[in-house]
Queue: 3 jobs
Job 1
Amino acid sequence: MIYEFFSGGINTILEMFKSGGIVTYVITIIGIYGFIYSLEKIHYLRKISKVQLPQIMGVVNDSMERGGSLEALRSIGSFENPISKIIAEALKIGYRNKSEVEDAMERVFIVEMGRMTKGLDTIRTIIEVSPLLGLFGTVVGIWYTFKALGLQANPTAMAEGIYIALITTIAGLTVAIIILPLYSNINSKIEGEIDKIEIAKKMTNWSTAEMLIAVYDEIDCSIAALNDVDGVLEVKAVYDNPKANIWVSFNPHMLEKSIGNIIKEKCNEDAQIVKSKLKQ
């Protein structure tokens, strides 16, 4: 009985396709494409939202305690989602100046937004066009009906025209009704990711940063150069670390030039950042 039910349903659908003509086939093809594309989009958005912001920031904070910002960069590199990429750019403050970091974060945001919203216009167009194609089929069916009525007054031909009109209308509305909730779901997920990115930007608004720096010859010049920079809170020589000889504390958001560039410009000395730690 169940087999007969499904078999009869499939036969009815196939008969509707045959009766609906080319318009029904066009609606079906774009409907299947829109449905599959929507599912792929939802899968992608679920994939990038698997790791939540608190988990990423927890990894960043733990890594910062162990090995500083470089360790944090390595630790979140495997997440490969928009939030982790935004945070990764924020972790590079000090290696680059604040404007470079902000520009890099903005570029990442634009690229990730492009990936998240790619294809939305196509899905929306399918939702809008499908009912219109159904309406077009309806008009064709009614035209066919009136043609039959005017020429022969054949009830069979009239019924066939009305049948075509109903089938194409049903097909167009069905596609729109199925894909519209998927489109809404995609939009809501994208808005959720954008909200997370905005929160991530605020959470990476580092208040202070500390760096251990290694220079070869111009230690005094480097310390003096850093002391003259707005945003530098404290600089001192380090004698108990075999890898670094200068420690500096600064406000990252007042840093107009990277630490390395400051020393290079003022002292003509290449500085190596041994360790960097950011604090909120």
Job 2
Amino acid sequence: MTFFVIAEGVISFLLVAGGVFAFTGSLGMLQFKDFFMRLHGPTKGTTLGIGCVLIASMIYFTLTQRELHVQELLITLFLFITAPVTGHMLAKTGLHMHLRFTTGTRGSVPEFRDEDVGQSRVTRPARARHPWKSRKQKRPRLFR
């Protein structure tokens, strides 16, 4: 076996594995019941899938063009750093807004500390009022 046959096998494996991970991550987003379970699909499965595809792309273009391609490696690194952070921030926001969750899974509200959940529901910010909608002023007329 030559080096290129082995490299094609590794690239093929990474592409297939990336497709399977991305598909299961997307399918998990559709099948899971509540917001907190749906976070796992894109933050875990899809991140691994895209990471595998990007690493396969890096290997392929490095071998075919005979120069090192690190753009895909940088994109993969950035994706692996940002996806868990955004998933954590979304989960904390869901806890603070007291979103409904399925009680049949492990982990329930009594396990959380008060500072994790928040004392009360987060209120929405007040809407900005237009100047002509105040009680004393009327909307300016353009045509009389």
Job 3
Amino acid sequence: MKRIILPTLILLAASAGISLHAQETDSIASRQADSLRHVFGRQHVAPTNAISTPYADTLDTGNPAVKVVLYDNGTYRYVRDLSLMAADSVFTECWDTRNVNPYRSEPDPIPDKFTLWVVDSLGAYCCPNQVKPRSLFGYRHGRRHQGIDLPLSTGTPVPAAFDGKVRISDYVSGYGNLVVIRHANGLETFYGHLSKRNVQSGDWVSAGEIIGLGGSTGRSTGPHLHFETRYRGAAFDPAWLIDFETGTLRHRLLKIRSWYFNPNQRYVQNVDDEDEIFRTDEEDRLLAEEQAKKEAAARAAREAAAVKYHTVRSGDTLSSIAKRYHTTVNRLCQLNGIKSTTILQIGKRLRVN
């Protein structure tokens, strides 16, 4: 099926490493990128058809990092140049074909909030298995379940969710036959309990390409696909990314919070939270200013409500008033702009705190 390419300069710049060199252009690009969070980033994405035919040829484009791939069935697709992608640090740093978490010895602090383009004008998506999940992310029987279980029959083809490079294709303890794919944005997807693996470590795969067959190998109570999503070794609920019952990708732009990586934190749909996550930087700034004004007004109101006054009566002196309100004459003078020798007038209000 022919794919329509969205002519978005910002996405190509972000995905393929195009350098925008003028300061004015940078400013425009920044504003355009902000607007994409609403019009493009938060769009849902339906799964693409699996690419089942080999490619016939590749063509150059005006961008050396982007190629046009022509397939035998007459379809084409814009993709990143694999020779350039292979040299990217995403595919060279902490690259380990055996250890499930290659970042364990070099843990990086995860920011409180950051964004990742999951599918842009050069990427595609395919649901690994459209079905109602059977076992969710979190603790299960006292053990941490770092993914989601998707029921399927043994031998069912399992597609890659996104374009990427196979890091692990091996039999790994409780996972059984496991395939781990690292993607250009740093995400990794895990496909466990396979009955057969169709790819090898180092292979480049496209979204929808069959990487193996479903099964029940490893620690498994029946045929299902164990699917995980991780960022720098830290697992988060795949349901933040994919609606498995409809097969759709929730958003092209994934906004991640640090608390997503809490093993007790499962996906919960909340429109208000979603709106907050997808606010532009300018909207964040304006809302922060508005919130600061509200907080300042509330603080001033609280302070005003807490202020106490004393109405001067016959026989009152500064000393007697200070003693009554547990303060000092000097403090009374400071609060009211008077001197210790000032003659008090009956009926005058004095601030006492």
